[in-house]
Design a protein that fits this description.
The protein is an alpha+beta fold. The chain folds into 4 domains: about 5-95 and about 100-205, Beta Polymerase, domain 2, CATH 3.30.460.10; about 210-355, Nucleotidyltransferases  domain 2 (Four Helix Bundle (Hemerythrin (Met), subunit A), Up-down Bundle), CATH 1.20.120.330; about 380-590, cca-adding enzyme, domain 2, CATH 1.10.3090; about 720-930, no CATH class. The protein has an 8-stranded antiparallel beta sheet, with helices on both faces. Strands 3-2-1-4 form a 4-stranded mixed beta sheet, with helices on both faces.
């Protein structure tokens, strides 16, 4: 074997240009037979693949062309496969006079068959033979596959005869689809052409409807698995709705039905016009650009565009911030607009295939059909509309030109008569958007129609989504157009802004129809008494319309709403209601989740904002719909309970207010009610127990829980215990209650939160009460982790046991927390500036500490520990998490029960709490490890 420096230096370009010649050049100086050549070949091909990847990545960075990158990677893989085939057939297993059985074609199938590969894609190969595989064929296949495996490639392969291919393609849609885009890489071209001929004649011919139906059903299954909305904020670029697989499916169906080999041929076939072809090509290139960068950045076949990746991909592509939007938000808007384009193209293809597959009727049937059509036209109420196959359509392509109001009227009729719109008509809407001028936007009839659509009791969500997908909604309301496909780069919002707004209308319509009584009993019961129903719909539709602007979106949104309400034809009173709702649409949620609802000042302050019972009703319903439309799992029964409590307390104030005498009377009423429940106790014991609680307890805690507490304390004392716990599940509110009895201690809440953190409990709220004899009765509400009560109770009992051990001093809480360390998720992805607000106005008796910042495991434990070290008593704690942002509120006093009023003391508190979020603190936490749960 010659010295290493005598080995021929083969470049990727040589392998691409003539694989056989390149392999022959490599084989000539090799000594040591096939094994040496195989080793040399693998080394050369490894270098070639690395060169190919580097070249493709450089091409992607320079040209920003994802499709060119994917084709470059595919060409490099072609060179590798063809080189291995040449080595196998010419050097390892040469045949001088091959028989008919010693013919073979190496065929790329699947994604590789399209001539495109992502950096981490599988390589799908078909080894095609004229008949049954021979010993020679088996040897050649192995000679190609083993080096590919040595190169650490993910190879999917099949070995079939032509007859096998035809038979299996008939019975298996996956194989039929793979063969649809098959491409010869190396070997016998005549053999490959024969397979293609028979595939077209014996498999494809006459089966387009069945293939289309199967592919669309397959798509639905795939989309359900990846996420049904194309506006999920962490989309799957390959398999998600509006992703590359949708484009593939679209072209598979078109290719199968129209027998074309290139998307450009679809214009000549009449399926696309030139504009739509350009959209197809632009979407394909963009999605490939994103996918290739995802694979290059992660070094693997990562298909989910996670928050972690979004920043990196946006930077790699070259997005910059603009108009108050971060680079990542501009990038994701481009992504979602592309996904929308893919959806539009899919609708066009489906409509064309539907029309293609309909057979013409006989003359008499057509005549009868035309007579029926005229009757249906009259039934639709406007001569410019008709029905095509039970779908709403325009009578001709000039219907929108004759009267641009027909653009809105189309959707009004669809909403009123519950009709699907014919895809050709939806396509015509998109092509007619230039007709949406300032004149149409201010047309009284057009705005009346839009308001009817928005406030309809018949599926307004579905109709608004159709309008949005056609582009009409954003064109008719340009401010809405600004938030179309706009994502908010955080973990809280699951959808783009436009999708969130449309979904919120759908939820409101369900409440309006009484369909959500079990889930939202209060909203359901008060809806019928709301006088400003129309204002509520408009306010909800516009509440986030100013997102993405540099100013507060509530303030900017109210200003936009004032202008739009006049345009829509709302009265001055309705307009003022809409403006107020948008300005205050976050207030009720904030107060409910982060304020002490048992503090009279909280209710009085909120009542001063709301002012009227009508506004209270409107704000409650709007808040429910808004929270629920944020995304799956964001709404839960606990939030519902908080909102109901705030509503009822505020309703009482608005009905006349609470005086000190009324509060005393309410306490006495509650004590009397509990006394009646404890009729089995001795009178002296009953009176002694009633005297143990302060007024705040009686006003905050409902009667059922008061009775549970009484019997819990009684049983603990009977057992001689001053430290005890009790657990109970609440499936409706989605929480588990942990009741804790213990001697009062400044670090009590820190111990409890630490025990919860160590045991995996996610605290959502805490009620803290001190009895007159020095005990603490705390109720900790932990988010539910299991559906089954028995599973949830076992978990809660483990948490309770950990709390008891910690309170008794059997273990150190720091050690308990350290046992369950885990790195914080997405720690480098999001940035939330920490903030500490110290307020002495929000409560009459307490100083309110509102602490917000980037959430992480164990944060609540760290905060309560810091507060206890500051010698502060925590009277109540309210814990809220909005995605990656934590907002924790503590009602505190000093050890004498007084507010914290001195500036110096407040400065110390602020510095200590901000230090919890500091880099040094995080570094120390990392060195010690971190708790695995929110608590």
């Amino acid at each position: 074997m010659p010295p290493a420096n005598d080995k021929p230096a083969l470049k990727l370009a040589e392998l691409i240009e003539d694989p056989a010649a390149a392999v022959a050049k490599l084989a000539r100086p090799t000594r040591g037979g096939s094994d040496a050549l195989r080793a040399e070949l693998v080394a050369v091909l490894r270098d070639a693949l690395e060169d190919g990847r580097a070249s493709a990545k450089d091409l992607l960075a320079r040209t920003r062309n994802g499709l060119a990158c994917a084709k470059r990677l595919s060409a490099a893989m072609d060179a590798v496969v063809a080189s291995l085939h040449a080595a196998a057939t010419r050097h390892f297993y040469p045949v001088q006079n091959p028989s008919s059985g010693e013919r073979m074609a190496v065929v790329a199938v699947g994604g590789y068959g399209r001539g495109t590969l992502a950096p981490g894609s599988d390589v799908d190969l078909l080894f095609l033979f004229p008949d049954k595989q021979t010993a020679w064929g088996e040897s050649v296949v192995e000679a190609v596959l083993y080096p590919l495996w040595d190169l650490k490639l993910k190879v999917g392969h099949s070995v079939r005869s032509i007859e096998d291919c035809i038979r299996e393609a008939r019975g298996d849609m996956t194989i039929r689809t793979a063969l649809l885009e098959s491409r010869l890489v190396a070997g016998d071209a005549t053999l490959f052409k024969e397979m293609q001929r028979r595939y077209g004649a014996e498999v494809v011919e006459g089966t387009a409807p069945a293939f289309t139906e199967a592919k669309l059903a397959e798509r639905e299954t795939r989309v359900m698995r990846a996420g049904t909305s194309r506006y999920l904020v962490e989309p799957n670029v390959k398999d998600g709705k509006g992703g590359l697989r949708d484009l593939n499916t679209l072209f598979w169906i078109a290719k199968y039905a129209y027998r074309v080999d290139d998307p450009a041929d679809l214009v000549e076939a009449g399926l696309f016009d030139a504009r739509e072809l350009a959209i197809f090509q632009r979407a394909e290139e963009f999605l490939w650009r994103v996918r290739c960068w995802m694979h290059f950045i992660t070094g693997r076949a990562e298909e989910r565009l996670s928050f972690d990746l979004q920043r990196q991909v946006a930077a790699a592509i070259g997005y910059a911030g603009r108009n108050g939007q971060a680079p990542v938000e501009r990038f994701m808007k481009a992504y979602f607009l592309t996904a929308k384009d893919v959806g539009d193209l899919t609708a066009i293809v489906c409509a064309a295939l539907e029309a293609r597959q309909q057979k013409p009727r006989a003359t008499l049937t057509r005549l009868l059909g035309s007579l029926t059509k005229r009757k249906r036209v009259r039934a639709l109420g406007h001569p410019d509309f008709t029905l095509k196959g039970q779908r709403l359509a325009v009578v001709d392509d000039d219907a929108f030109k004759r009267d641009p109001v027909n653009l809105l009227r189309l959707y009004e009729i669809a909403s009123r008569d519950d009709l699907a719109i014919h895809p050709d008509t939806s396509r015509l809407v998109t092509q007619s958007l230039r007709l949406v001028t300032a004149q149409l936007r201010h047309d009284r009839e057009a705005n009346r129609i839009f308001l009817e659509i928005l406030t309809s009791r018949r599926s307004p969500e579905a109709v608004l989504r159709r309008m949005n997908e056609s582009g009409l909604l954003g064109r008719f309301i340009p401010d809405f157009g600004r938030v179309v496909a706009m994502m908010q780069f955080n973990m809280y919002h699951h959808y783009t802004v436009d999708e969130h707004l449309i979904r919120s209308i759908g939820i409101l319509a369900e409440i309006d129809a009484g369909a959500l009584e079990a889930e939202h009993p209060l909203a359901n019961s008060i809806f019928a008494s709301i006088a400003n129903r129309r204002a509520l719909y408009v306010a909800l539709f516009l509440h986030d319309i100013a997102k993405g602007r540099p100013e507060d979106h509530s303030v900017a949104g109210a200003r936009i709403a004032r202008k739009l309400c006049r345009r829509f034809g709302l009265s001055e009173a309705q307009t003022e209601t809409v403006v107020w709702l948008i300005e205050n649409h976050l207030v009720m949620s904030t107060v409910a989740q982060s304020r002490d609802l048992g503090d009279p000042k909280t209710i009085e302050s909120f009542a001063a904002i709301v002012q009227t019972l009508e506004r209270l009703k409107l704000l409650l319903v709007l808040t429910v719909a808004d929270i629920k439309a944020v995304g799956p799992g964001v709404w839960n029964g606990w939030k519902g309970q908080l909102l109901r409590t705030l509503y009822y307390e505020t309703e009482m104030v608005l009905a006349g207010g609470h005086s000190a005498i009324e509060r005393k009377a309410r306490v006495e009423l509650k004590q009397d009610a509990l006394a009646a429940r404890l009729s089995d106790w001795q009178p002296a014991a009953r009176e002694a127990y009633l005297a143990r609680h302060y007024p705040a307890y009686w006003l905050k805690v409902e009667l059922d829980r008061q009775e549970q507490h009484a019997r819990f304390l009684h049983a603990a004392e009977a057992a001689g215990r001053t430290t005890a716990t009790k657990v109970e599940t609440d499936s409706f509110r989605g929480v588990t209650e942990l009741t804790i009895l213990a001697p009062d201690h400044p670090r009590l809440l820190a111990i409890v939160t630490g025990a919860c953190a160590a045991a995996g409990g996610n605290i959502v709220d805490a009620q803290i009460f001190t009895t007159s004899d020095g005990l603490v009765l705390d109720t900790i509400f932990v988010s539910r982790a299991f559906e089954r009560d028995d599973d949830e109770l076992r978990r809660a009992e483990r948490i309770a046991a950990a709390i008891e051990r910690a309170l008794k001093g059997e273990i150190k809480i720091a050690d308990l927390v350290a046992q369950r360390r885990a790195p914080p998720p997405r720690g480098q992805t999001f940035q939330v500036a920490p903030e500490v607000i110290i307020d002495n106005v929000l409560s009459t008796r307490h100083t309110v500490l509102e602490v917000s910042g980037l959430d992480r495991p164990g944060l609540l434990y760290d905060l309560t520990t810091a507060i206890s070290k500051l010698n502060l008593n925590i009277a109540s704690a309210h814990i809220a998490t909005f995605g990656e942002k934590a907002v924790d509120v503590f009602y505190v006093t000093d050890l004498t029960g007084a507010k914290i009023t001195t500036t110096a003391r407040q400065l110390i508190i602020r510095q200590a709490l901000l230090a919890v979020f500091s880099f040094e603190h995080d570094k120390a936490q990392t060195a010690r490890g971190k708790a695995p749960a929110r608590a």
